[in-house]
User: Fold this.
Amino acid sequence: MAETRRRGASLAHYLREAFLFRWNLLTFLGAAAGAALSPFPDVLLPLVGAVELAYLGGLVSIPRFRAAIDAKAAKRWRFGRGTAETASVETLLLNLPRASQVRFDALRARCLRMRAIAQGVRGRSGAGGGAADEVGTDALDRMLWVFLRLLHSHHALANFLVATPEAELAARVTELEQKLAEAGKSGDERIQRSLRDSLETARARLDNHRRGKDNAAFVAVELDRVEEKIQALSEAAVNRHDPDFITSQVDSVAESMRQTEQTLGQLQAITGLVEELDEPPPILAAELEETRE
Assistant:
């Protein structure tokens, strides 16, 4: 679905938009009515139809017209994806601490501000930016979605680390090792077997905690990296309006983003995140509440 949308609207869609343009529709209906009421409807009606077809063909052949229709269709598609995906964004935000909410809101607001500046620059220069806007918006939505999920993962990992202090887990391992050593002197195999099992479990818990600590450190670094990538892409749109350039910027971070996505999938059991949506929610176009308790 997303691939079809990126290829642009169909010819039938272009023709329909051109025909339904209100000034064209009024002119065509007026001319057709005049021809029908004239003494020569058999001659004039086909002539009106031929002129209309020539107009539609000429308009559809203009690249700027097609780009405008593509942007309009993409905007309608983004808004038409329903409130469920926007609700998923709000749900994640509401479950974050205030500092993380502010960080996300500030980054999103910066993207919107850079996009507004870019549109203003294009308006003054007369450059068309419909296709570039759409490519850039898709990329920013995806990276903002990853950034939001990273914030959620970081918060969940922090809660996990607080709930299971490493010092207590390490102390438990030491305690069980001492008890097992003492039990070895008594010769009671049942006690030794029970202590060995408990020690194995305690060591597994300690290892899991240390992996969680490493994951939390990685996620913190990834948050900074993705945030900088988002800022760089949003700023690039101000001075560069070529869709191919914007696409190349998106492609340059695609491989590293896959690693981040894989990490998020591995952390799902701890963070409680659901599987990623096939397409990111329309974050920039959504009306998100920025004042939260």
